[in-house]
Amino acid sequence: MSGNTIGKIFCVTTFGESHGIALGGIIDGMPSKFPLNEEDIQKELDKRKPGKSIYTTPRKEEDKVKILSGVFNGLTTGTSIGIIIENKDYKSSDYENIKDIFRPGHADYTYYKKYGIRDYRGGGRSSARETVIRVAAGAIANKFLLEKYNIKIIAYISQIGNIICNNDIDLDFIDKNPFFITDKSKINDIDLLIRNIKKMGDSIGAKIKIIIKNMPIGIGNPVFDKLSACLAYSLMSINAVKGVEIGDGFSVINQLGSENRDEIKDNIFLSNHSGGILGGLSTGQDIIINIALKPTSSISKECNTINIHNQNKKIIIKGRHDPCVGIRAVPIAKSMIAITLMDHILINHSQCNI
Amino acid sequence: MSGNTIGKIFCVTTFGESHGIALGGIIDGMPSKFPLNEEDIQKELDKRKPGKSIYTTPRKEEDKVKILSGVFNGLTTGTSIGIIIENKDYKSSDYENIKDIFRPGHADYTYYKKYGIRDYRGGGRSSARETVIRVAAGAIANKFLLEKYNIKIIAYISQIGNIICNNDIDLDFIDKNPFFITDKSKINDIDLLIRNIKKMGDSIGAKIKIIIKNMPIGIGNPVFDKLSACLAYSLMSINAVKGVEIGDGFSVINQLGSENRDEIKDNIFLSNHSGGILGGLSTGQDIIINIALKPTSSISKECNTINIHNQNKKIIIKGRHDPCVGIRAVPIAKSMIAITLMDHILINHSQCNI
Amino acid sequence: MSGNTIGKIFCVTTFGESHGIALGGIIDGMPSKFPLNEEDIQKELDKRKPGKSIYTTPRKEEDKVKILSGVFNGLTTGTSIGIIIENKDYKSSDYENIKDIFRPGHADYTYYKKYGIRDYRGGGRSSARETVIRVAAGAIANKFLLEKYNIKIIAYISQIGNIICNNDIDLDFIDKNPFFITDKSKINDIDLLIRNIKKMGDSIGAKIKIIIKNMPIGIGNPVFDKLSACLAYSLMSINAVKGVEIGDGFSVINQLGSENRDEIKDNIFLSNHSGGILGGLSTGQDIIINIALKPTSSISKECNTINIHNQNKKIIIKGRHDPCVGIRAVPIAKSMIAITLMDHILINHSQCNI
Amino acid sequence: MSGNTIGKIFCVTTFGESHGIALGGIIDGMPSKFPLNEEDIQKELDKRKPGKSIYTTPRKEEDKVKILSGVFNGLTTGTSIGIIIENKDYKSSDYENIKDIFRPGHADYTYYKKYGIRDYRGGGRSSARETVIRVAAGAIANKFLLEKYNIKIIAYISQIGNIICNNDIDLDFIDKNPFFITDKSKINDIDLLIRNIKKMGDSIGAKIKIIIKNMPIGIGNPVFDKLSACLAYSLMSINAVKGVEIGDGFSVINQLGSENRDEIKDNIFLSNHSGGILGGLSTGQDIIINIALKPTSSISKECNTINIHNQNKKIIIKGRHDPCVGIRAVPIAKSMIAITLMDHILINHSQCNI
């Protein structure tokens, strides 16, 4: 495999399987003398942690992060930061029965066909558990962006199944409810939906909205490494993400140019159809992104599949799973945004008339 | 600037402004002994060429490509391939009046804020003209993918404004109509729409569908450099693209897991909601992608903006522009797909149990 | 910091300070289904281990490696391999007295000036201890090169101070003596020299010769990423290396072209002045490299320096140090060669007429 | 091929064969608003130009550079800079007789074995002519380093064959003599040597010394991407370079630690054995480098070789060649240094406590 590294100047490289000894990562490119401790990371991990509520997988992981290097006396030294999170509550025995079978909707089939081998325990590297290190790295980037640039990355669930939340109602509410929504009025509907889905042994998709506030102007690159392109890449690299929109996204198909272009007056933009990015560079407006997450494929409803010998099989997936994987993707999406922004902002320091 | 290179093993680097002397690129990583000549590239360029019909910008460019290196006696040598396309029909005088003014919806504002300088003639590097080299490089990748792997990349317009085409009707029709659609029955509607839009001095958005046929299984990487992530990156790097969907895309939000996961029986997938990518790797099914393109911002309707001195201005954009930039984006999208696939396929040669 | 990653397809990223909790690394790009266990790595680490003889630093480190991911049932899975080595025998108190003082010949001064902070305990990231992960990663690459390609990398001390060994006398002897030399007849001289140097509280430089046997032809790239350039890079990245020669190295200055060019007859080269690399690509002959290592700067002789307040100071460096750091660099050099070759060989799979 | 790009933030990518239509390159990452025109580049190219004196190849190339993009009204715009140099005086007919024969000491054999094809005309991509674009890119970097940081890169011939020049005698003399030496007293000896070598139909090696003045402190990276490692890489990527020394280089083998470590007093280093780099970072002292260049392999003395059918052949190389390729390597070495420094200095802007 390659492709376990993201970033050019702020580089995050990760390792680890769902049921291995530990997951970990290396954050390279962190500027020096920045205050950092394990608690800064832990509090973000706790938001993503499984087993937090009945709406997510009951797997209980402490997800205790350890910083192994790169921080001295509470400050980053400029050297690479090694982090590690040990796995505790894994039951690999749950997976013995599927070791030769490809779970539909999962990476089992493609991993096996590519590598000729796969760590089937809990999905191995393809497990959503892989994202724990993304969140840890994102916490570092996020702290830096907030403290040095006052950049705020807000992410919340804007839709689950057919329940469409009113957006941006109460941003403070996001961290106070198990669904990461801003619209208190939808709590009961979603609660009911998730309970039903769970009872059916099924799962449901979701939509996440992301808003980046206080963006400096001119972050990004004009051609291939556009800020929009790099954000799409980093978000699409999250398991289960199937769509990314910047600004008006797919709505632009039926817009007129006169409607879509954001006019400027008195030094401010009169609208934000672009989602805060023009020509691959940030405009200084809020950056607006939407992503779509597919329903968890691990459900307890029986279905058709084949095994590694190409024999037809029926499968019911046991184990502990999220009825709506989109919910726990909120802090992950936020982290990926932070990692990508951090990289672009550091690159920006080397680009303009020095 | 940085970010003018795409790819890790099959690397494409480009340069060139809309009204500069020439645009060009370097294709590095091309395997040796592959038959290649200028005509192979030229025929793809001709599809993208401006001035082909009344539906696109009347700028007339020959877009004559020259291969400067890397090919000897009709075969690639394995060395880097230099290509160049000279600019001919540019009228920079059209742009003198906007040299201090930011055209809304364009990169003028962000480039100027970032770099403190911009080549305002025709949009400089931010012009859609930049994509001519993408198409040239894509033509090389495309030929290789087709001849060595029989991979076919099909791209067509599936929607313009509110006119939704029936999909996949007649793929041979794509290259026989000026809108790159497959649905003959919509020709008149679209013709009328574009003429109206043009008369109004306005523009309209579009949607492109992409299908990749005959994909080998296992192409891609499992974590950050997922095939889906890299495709989203390369497509989002095209000017005007505001949304990318893989497979069912945003429809997954309201799908159940039991509906979305693609069951397998008799060694074939029973559906393709995933769009041919699971866990970041190709499944061997068709890869299905949709992208949204915003309406051209250069329109002749007056609007509000500011100049570099932050003074309010009214602007009417003259010059020659596409009423629907989405149409000409079809060969560009196809090229970006080809470049990205080529990179992943070459990387794949170095990954599995050797 | 950035630059903690080496390689393009076979990527090694490392972290860790001399007196931190642990050192570790991520090896990304390892082909799948290759047999690998901790013992494969451990046996190479044991060669580099400090405290092995009176000729090296008495610091006692178990250097017990743990593989945290990427291996399943004794085979690589193709996913990124996380490795970790905990620090045990560190006495940071040894270093409190030098926390504000720059040790001459060390990175103290430059790290402090660059980052505004440094982990002074044992040299932090600049310690030779950093190389333990290089050796671990190199062990993996080395095993692959040997088993899949029969490539053998031999490295030995060819000179210490003014004692010049006869080369290539007995390659089996290398691992049987504490100096990694091939020339048994020089054991006593070197033993005496090192004891004297130690008694004087001083240190001495060394030269390492490297021979790569059974190289495939055509490995490398023609322009910037020449095999020679990449080997020079990877060797010069080892602490204390101050010179690199390929083939005849500095001797070519006074050679005639008629003497230096390696003639070919009966399909074999009649000489090997080139050191097995022509035009950046391997010729299939043995690759021959020499490197020069400076004497350890940490010695117990007093010298002049300044502290962080620019005040003149006298310093005597305590702690436990190698009288000839070159000796322990032998397995490190071998590892860097293996890592670089591995990367080039994997890249080669994607380059030629496929 | 891959590997035609150097640099991470300041990236130079090149193409072109000796007898192709043109050579060219793309410089990406140049900061904006920097004054640049073709004359800035041309004057450096003129120093490298063949046919300047009887001591170098009589091939006459105008080497007229054209800037195709990235500069507007005399200032860089921050976009990628495309440059091109057309080939004029090539006589490919000279090479028809060697099209199936491998010239000893050349890349003919390795290119053919790797790629299965080679452009034999003038050595194709392996020709020293490839370096013309390095010099052009280096000229841009050099101008920036000088004007923004007052960094001066000095390179000169310090030895040809057995004639060892006294160093640093008269730096102004370098550009006033055809050998790029500083020691006027050796002019006649070298002149005589070169004439003799030429008469014999042979060639001779050379040594180049490089001094970088006014280096900022702390440029570089601590682990793999050490400044020393990156300089070694970029210099070893020049055709014919077989050895690189930083500071005392191979002399350190027989030095004591007490002699080698550079003591510090009154805020200055008392010596410069390190060559201005400690722990991979610049110390602020002069950076001192030596490189060794092998004698040209293209000489008119007959020798043994084989052809592509493995048949023994005798060969006499015609065509126009340098009796001492080291001489023309002086501006090339300077350029590679400039390109590498530029990259590291731009990266440095993103690294430290921001």
UniProtKB/TrEMBL annotation, chains A, B, C, D:
The protein's superkingdom reads: Bacteria
The UniProt annotation places NADP(+) binding at 48
The cross-references to InterPro entries, in alphabetical order and at most eight, read: Chorismate_synth, Chorismate_synth_AroC_sf, Chorismate_synthase_CS
**GO molecular function terms listed in the Swiss-Prot or TrEMBL record:** chorismate synthase activity
Q: Per its Swiss-Prot or TrEMBL entry, what cofactor is needed?
A: FMNH2
Q: What is its EC number?
A: 4.2.3.5
Signal peptide coordinates:
none
Q: Which reaction does it catalyse?
A: 5-O-(1-carboxyvinyl)-3-phosphoshikimate = chorismate + phosphate
Write out the residues that bind FMN.
125-127, 239-240, 279, 294-298, 320
Entry cofactor note text? Reduced FMN (FMNH(2)).
What are the UniProt keywords, alphabetically? Amino-acid biosynthesis, Aromatic amino acid biosynthesis, FAD, Flavoprotein, FMN, Lyase, NADP
Pathway stated in the Swiss-Prot or TrEMBL entry: Metabolic intermediate biosynthesis; chorismate biosynthesis; chorismate from D-erythrose 4-phosphate and phosphoenolpyruvate: step 7/7
Q: What does the similarity note say?
A: Belongs to the chorismate synthase family.
Q: So what does this one do?
A: This reaction introduces a second double bond into the aromatic ring system.
On assembly, the entry states: Homotetramer.
PANTHER family noted in UniProt:
CHORISMATE SYNTHASE
Mind telling me what this protein is named? Answer: Chorismate synthase
UniProt gene name: aroC
